[in-house]
Amino acid sequence: MKTCYNKDHMYFNNKKLPLVICGLGHFATRRIIPAISMCQNVELVAVVDRSMKGSRLASNIQRFKSLEDLLDSRPTGAVYITTPNYLHARQTLQCLEAGLHVLCEKPMATNSLDCQSMVRVAQNLKLYLGVGHMLRYSPALQLSKSWLQNGMIGEPHTICAFFHYDLSEEDRPWAFRRDLAGGGVLMDAGIHCIDSIRFLVGDPVIPLGGMIDQPLAGSVERSAVCRFTAAGVVCFVQTCSQASYLSRLSISGKDGEIIIDNFAACWGIATVKLVDPQTNRVIKEEKIDVSTTYSEQIRHFADIVCRSEFNSVAALDAAENVRIVEKLYSVIEYL
């Protein structure tokens, strides 16, 4: 394993990237901590946990009540920001200015201006800024992209994505305030659909329109339908945050259709099918274990830091996702 080092070339212990989780909520304990344990090139060294209660952690993992307390301890390595959306920009900038690499959860920030500031500071300080659009690391999406690139459906002309889930206000009360979340279901789940489509077919994305439910003043939409083109492919995205879980993405081409059932999952199995458009017969089908999605994202982030091959591609892509959502909000109509 390669030895990891920070920008001052101070070698890290055990040849692993020291990683701190900032925001020890349900998401971090259920998804991120297990994913870190699967990465041989990462070591969880501390958590920032406001409650100081949290889940059971190994005795060698330090706890800090605030990000400021952590930074006062002069840590090295990287921080994974898993706090609510409205804290992403400020906390990312604090960590970058302290000389730490950052992996920030999506959305990168609640607005595109903050995204630009985050990218600019990371570039100026020569630090790596990654953003948690983890579906790019899903083996189901990667398989689908390889089928596309191999011409198995010919030239794609239409993509449809559905992402439904049930978001409880009790679990994430801040997610129901526009000023804290940056938007509703379109910013929360729609941005995953947009990023997945861009990963599959590329840019540019040109928003065409759509509809959302009418939220109360200061609140957010719970359902949205939007339409745009990506690299000339017509795309439809439907999202809802008050329904039973469902995620499905289909890519239609001249010679066939690729369907990914459970495409947004990072647990269990996703099914990727190649369908004959004339007979609707399944020509090829693969069931894919997608439980490594988060661990692959974290491993890839650590590899880049270890090799000091810093670039702004991931951060610029994530910033573009936020800009696209903003643009969609500007052209969308109310149901």
Task: Give the helix/strand layout.
Layout: E1 17-22, H1 26-37, E2 42-48, E3 62-64, H2 67-72, E4 78-81, H3 88-97, E5 101-104, H4 112-125, E6 129-131, H5 139-149, E7 156-166, H6 178-181, H7 185-201, E8 205-212, E9 223-230, E10 233-240, E11 242-253, E12 256-261, E13 269-275, E14 282-289, H8 293-307, H9 313-331, E15 333-334
Parallel strand pairs: 1-2, 1-4, 2-3, 4-5, 5-6, 7-10, 8-15
Antiparallel strand pairs: 7-11, 8-9, 9-10, 11-12, 12-13, 13-14
Number of helical stretches of at least 4 residues: 9
What helical percentage do the residues reach? 25-40%
Number of domains: 2
Tell the overall outline: globular
* CATH architecture identity of the largest domain: 2-Layer Sandwich
What is the fold-level CATH name, i.e. the topology of the largest domain?
A: Dihydrodipicolinate Reductase, domain 2
Order of helices and strands: EHEEHEHEHEHEHHEEEEEEEHHE
Biggest sheet character: 9 strands, mixed
Could you write a compact summary of the structure shown?
The chain has 335 residues and is α/β, with parallel strands linked by helices. The protein has helices at 26-37, 67-72, 88-97, 112-125, 139-149, 178-181, 185-201, 293-307, 313-331, and strands spanning 17-22, 42-48, 62-64, 78-81, 101-104, 129-131, 156-166, 205-212, 223-230, 233-240, 242-253, 256-261, 269-275, 282-289, 333-334.
Walk me through what this model shows.
The protein is α/β, with parallel strands linked by helices. The chain folds into 2 domains: about 140 residues, 3-Layer(aba) Sandwich (Rossmann fold), CATH 3.40.50.720; about 170 residues, Dihydrodipicolinate Reductase, domain 2 (2-Layer Sandwich). It contains 9 helices and 15 strands. The chain has a 9-stranded mixed β-sheet. The chain is globular and about 65 Å long.
